[in-house]
Structure formats: structure tokens, C-alpha cells
């Protein structure tokens, strides 16, 4: 099967090279593509460098336009203002729902020719293929799938204290005091809004998949008064006592470092944190393990990193298409996703080359639609304005203990009622 992938891939690339030469465009290397993304941590940097180097070997220049911002909140703002100033980059990391929103405004290059030549419909996992399409056209080149509901744990610390990684929040509450007594922070966490929201969405999922879908996929207003939403909010507040004091607004990479340096025992984060642990020289199984975030073992809460092309410079098109084709090469997929902590978007990746965390993620993602939950925080569901308003409410609730649970529920419900258009 891998051979077939290679074969399809080579044919597609050959077709694209021919197209590029036929229209007599200037060498792609002469005019590097500016790529706007938000990857700044060590593993993110290594992953971006790998793509730059591989596409460079095929004559496509890559010029970094990095806007460091965990989860890309700042990068989105910069991209929008650059668009308005007529200074857009040729390539941008958009992801999920943002791809659809920009496609709707006719701001993205259609990648239909590349997708057809590369047989993307056969090559890509169907769930991935669906997220890069809008109105019958392809608008993004997918890189990898991240599992958001991952619990990373420091194996050495848990082993030393004779503790098991918790499968539920009740189990977590049982082991947390023991860790704290031993002078270890049970849960590495930052008070940065997107990081609080990432933890919170896993807690909502732990309360019920129908609750998660009702709140964040269907925008079902009644779900906002569900007592299980109150339980998730209380859970978030209760978990604060296990996060060390004070809880700082720090980068996610700093929490990873705390875990790696044996100062904290666990961390709930998307599996880009695995990439960072690996970059710090730690090994899956020996040094750290990954499990599902408590109470979410049956679900794969995910997002997909993608690159979209902005059609601002017609002469860049051949290079943009070549870049799109190249990111799906089996070897780039395997190497990139290993560095990044994500899993391949291909139907038949080299499973044997994956570590235990990646293999578990891949199997669950492909176990059926019921297991797959597009993430609110990481741009896979409702649009960014609504998401940002919700994140602000959850953040306020997290920081200020005097904000009442029912008040927050009501405010979230109002946001849903005001903004979400039912489909
Ligand atoms: C996610 C993105 C990841 C990673 C993370 C932290 O939204 O999908 O690739 O970069 O943010 O910045």
C-alpha cells in the first residue's frame, strides 16, 4: 500500500512539474513563498524547518513569517491586518473552520488541480478530506492531526510514588494530594486563555459527548443550562488547587519543561506537547506516557494543521501548488508528524514507525465517526468570534473565584443565542 502511495505521489509531482515548466514561470526558488505560521517552540520550529528543507530540495523557497502565538490567536490577527494592508503572504496556516470562512470570501487559491493529480480523495483520510473542502473545491493542504484530549504524565515520578495515571477525574483527585505532599505540582498548567480553554473543553467532553456536541457543534441553546456544564465549570475551578501557586500566564512550552524537569507530574494538552517532550530528549514509555485526558478515553478530540494558499501573486502559483503536493509525500508526512507530535493525514501511513502514543491516536481517530470530536478551541467548529467570546468567559471564570457558575453558564448561553446560526 505504501508503494501505491509513493507511486501516486510521484506521478502527481511529475504532472505538476510539467505544468510549472509549460507556463514558463520564473524559477520558484527565485521567489520564495512567504509562509505565515505561529510555530515557535523547539519542536514546532524543527517541524517547520523540515518542511522548508524538503520543499527547498524541490526548488520551492520558504520564507518564514512567524507570529509566535500559542494556538495561533495572534497569527490570525496579523494575517487579517496584512490582508487589509495588501501585504498578504503566499501561504498561511489557517486550520479548520477558518479555511471554510476564508474560502467563502474567495480569498484562497483553489487546489483542485493538485488534489486531482495527487488523487487526494484516495490518499487522504476521509475525515481530513472533508475539512479542506468547501463548496466542492479544495482549499488547503493538510499536514497532521493533533489529539487535544491527551494527558501526559511523568513516568518516573508516578512510578517512584507507586501511582497510576488517572483514567477519570475522581482518580486524579485521589492521586493529586499524594503528589502535592511529595512537593510535586500534580498538574502543569498556565492561565493563558487558550490553554485554560483547552483544558476546559476536555472537561466538558468528560461530562458527556452529547453535551460537547450540543454546546459546541450544534450551538444548542438548551445545552448551556445543562447541569453537566456547571459540573465542568466546577471541575475547572477545583483543579486550580493542583496547578501550583501562583498559576502563571506562561507559554505551553514552559509547562512542558516543568514536566520534563520532574517538577510536575501531569499535563493535559494537545499532543504537540509530545513533540516538545521529544525535542527535550525524553522518550515515550521510558520517561513519559500519554493517556486520554481524564474521562475522555473513548474520544479523539482533534484539530488538523493545514496550509492554505493566498492567490495574491499569480506567478507564485506553480510553487504554491508544488508545496501543497509535497506536504503529502509519505516520507515528509512520517518525519514531520514524528517531530510535531501529531499523526499523518494519509490513509496508509507507516504505522510501524509511529510511537505508542501516535499509534493509539491513529487507531482511535480511525475507529469511526462516533469517536471523532472536532475541537472548539482549536478552530474545528464554530467561528472564531464566537469561540473567542466563549474563551474570554471561561478565562474570567477561571481567574476570578467570585464569578458564579450559573452566571457563567448564562453568559455562555447568551453568546450562543446571539451568535450561533443554526445550520
Ligand atoms: C494548535 C496547533 C498546533 C500547535 C498548538 C500550539 O492550535 O494546531 O500545531 O502549534 O496550537 O501552538
Automatic annotation (TrEMBL):
It comes from the Bacteria. This is Probable sugar-binding periplasmic protein. Belongs to the bacterial solute-binding protein 1 family. InterPro entries: Bact_solute-bd_prot1 (IPR050490), SBP (IPR006059). Keywords: Signal, Transport. The keyword Transport applies. Pfam families: SBP_bac_1. Part of a binding-protein-dependent transport system for a sugar. PANTHER family: ARABINOSE-BINDING PROTEIN-RELATED (PTHR43649), BINDING PROTEIN COMPONENT OF ABC SUGAR TRANSPORTER-RELATED (PTHR43649:SF28). GO terms for cellular component: periplasmic space. Its main location: periplasm. The keyword Signal applies. It is found in: Periplasm. Residues 1-28 form the signal peptide.
